[in-house]
Structure formats: structure tokens, C-alpha cells
Design a protein that fits this description.
The protein is mainly beta and 210 residues long. It has two helices and eight strands. It has a single domain, classed as Sortase (Sortase, Chain: A), CATH 2.40.260. It has helices at 4-17, 166-170; strands at 60-65, 70-77, 96-99, 109-114, 138-143, 148-160, 176-188, 191-206. The radius of gyration is 16 Å and the shape is globular.
């Protein structure tokens, strides 16, 4: 389950965490809820989804999202000295990062991964097309022990950073789920007004080699 500390940190950390991460295309609901972009809804279970057995804890090392053109290594992220969540470094070999105080992908609870949309003068970030995802798209995470966890997107939401849905992202859930977070919406200087959040549920697993 998600540690209570993770939820307590979320409100204070995520607006800072993704303040300069970049932005993406896509319409944004003015009330900070799910936008009216086709395929964007509130989080819900995939239709007809069967229960999939959770995996043992193992750190993610790779992330693949065919519909968003993502195939990236994954680094570990912790907390910065000021208590905010770390972000991947702004480099030309931009990678996604897994927040290590969340469950690993395939464990029960919401596993949280972060990425940039733009990376300064280096151009597009690894999550530049995250807002294009729709319900039913597939996400695959590769784990350190050789196992893999596949998730199915259940919702894509664009929300104002000031109205970040802390409980929806960090709150305890009774099955393995995934949260992918980046920036979106209008850009003012080096900052973006909104966050794009992808919600996904575990749909298949490949066990670690024996």
C-alpha cells in the first residue's frame, strides 16, 4: 500500500516537482478536472478486465509506451533537501524516473513515474506525447529482476497544478496501478500551468526468470 508519507508530501511537492518540466498539447478543462479531449475520463477500471496477480517488489528499469513513442530507461527518484520530489535531470538523454517511496510497478498500490515534456535547450522530453494517450492504450514496465508488468490506461487527466488531485494520485488502492505525471497546458516563461496525469491498471505480467 502507499505509505502515508507519500500522500502527505504530494500537495507540497508536485507543483514544484513539475514546475519547469515542459508542456504538451491538448485541451484543459477550466475547472481543473478531466479535460473534454476525446478519450479523457475520470479514473475507472478497464471494461471486462480480469484480476491479475501482483508481482513481487522489484525496481523498474525500463518503460515502454507504444502509443506515445516512449521506450526509455527508468532512474530512481527520491526527495530533495527541501522535501520536494526529485525530478530527472535536464539532459539531452532525458529519461523517466520512478518515485522510490511509491510501490514498484506490479505491486499493490499506485506506482508513480515522472518525466519531462521539454528539457530546456535540449528540446523535447521523454513524456512529450503523454497527453495523446487514451483509455485502453498499453504501458509496459521492465523490472530489475527480469519480470515485466503491463498496464492498461484507464484515464488521462489534465489538471491545474494548484488543484492537483493528491488523493487520486497517491491514495491507497487495492490493486496494482500506475501513475505517469508530466506538465501540460499553457506555458508562461519557463513554467506550465497544468499537469498531465495518466492513470493505468495492471492487465498482464511476465514473471522473473527462475
Amino acid at each position: 500500500m502507499t505509505r502515508p508519507a507519500g500522500r502527505a508530501l504530494a500537495t507540497a511537492t508536485l507543483a514544484v516537482l513539475l514546475a519547469g518540466c515542459g508542456g504538451g498539447a491538448g485541451n484543459t478543462g477550466s475547472d481543473g478536472t478531466a479535460s473534454d479531449r476525446p478519450g479523457t475520463t475520470a479514473p475507472q477500471s478497464p471494461t471486462g478486465a480480469k484480476s491479475t496477480r501482483p508481482l513481487e517488489r522489484s525496481v523498474p528499469v525500463g518503460l515502454r509506451i507504444p502509443a506515445a513513442g516512449v521506450d526509455t530507461p527508468v532512474m530512481r527518484l527520491g526527495l530533495a533537501a527541501d522535501g520536494t520530489v526529485q525530478v530527472p535531470p535536464v539532459t539531452d538523454d532525458d529519461r523517466a524516473g520512478w518515485y522510490r517511496h511509491s510501490p514498484t510497478p506490479g505491486q499493490v498500490g499506485p506506482s508513480v513515474l515522472l518525466g519531462h515534456v521539454t528539457v530546456g535547450t535540449h528540446g523535447d522530453g521523454v513524456f512529450r506525447h503523454l497527453a495523446r494517450l487514451h483509455r485502453g492504450d498499453r504501458i509496459e514496465t521492465r523490472l530489475e529482476n527480469g519480470a515485466a508488468a503491463e498496464f492498461t490506461v484507464t484515464a488521462v487527466r489534465t489538471v491545474r497544478k494548484a488543484e492537483f488531485p493528491t488523493d487520486d494520485v497517491y491514495g491507497d488502492v487495492k490493486r496494482p496501478e500506475l501513475r505517469l505525471i508530466t506538465c501540460g497546458g499553457p506555458r508562461v516563461g519557463e513554467e506550465y500551468r497544468d499537469n498531465v496525469i495518466v492513470f493505468a491498471a495492471l492487465s498482464a505480467t511476465r514473471p522473473a526468470p527462475s
